[in-house]
Fold this protein.
Amino acid sequence: MTLESFNLKGKVALVTGCNTGLGQGMALGLAKAGCDIVGINISEATETQQQVEALGRKFVDVRANLMKLDDIPSIVDRAVTELGRIDILVNNAGIIRRNDAIDFSEQDWDDVMNINVKSLFFMSQAVAKQFIAQGEGGKIINIASMLSFQGGIRVPSYTASKSGVMGVTRLMANEWAAHGINVNAIAPGYMATDNTTALRADEQRNKEIVDRIPAARWGLPSDLEGPCVFLASSASDYINGYTIAVDGGWLSR
């Protein structure tokens, strides 16, 4: 009975930014648990689609630019038209810009804030309206960061946006729990993805990072499969507004 609460068979999950990396890992985890996937990406998600379909699940490939809000209504409409409903939203799409705070540009500030927190909020709003119309609740999973808890260096807009993600996760949970909607977040630690290629290639910086992680390794996209499935399933029905760190123990040091 306990294991059955993790079963997502027949559910539809909308996952943004799932063509590679963490988003791909979470989409595959949800598909393994039984979900059909609506993938929202700015470029083709061929590899993710092939892997999801190899699991016997449906994959709806939607192209959208989440730098702007214009595409959000059509994303929801297409998901409902093609798969009948939405049960889960994973707000994974995001970007980062690096520069010293003293030299940081307004454009780099706006670009990161627009996709990392503004689009996340309005995508959540649109999907929450669909959840309410369906009358059966739903699950929203936002992707936060270690920089939701820490300041970092040379990433001012990313730090601000990810701190904002943790805040609006709590806000949305407070307002929407009455509708049976659970809103929570996952804060990945140092993960081996395209975003961290330069860090991992820097021998000294790579050693400094790994030496601080109690698990003594970089995280992998597959490390997010279990936490994502948990927060998407009925096993987490009494968890609201919480951000789970998946960081190999980074924050505990």
Remarks:
- The longest helix spans residues 106-134.
- Strands lie at 12-16, 36-41, 59-63, 88-91, 138-143, 181-188, 243-246.
- DSSP finds eight helices and seven strands in the chain.
- The chain has a mean pLDDT of 97.
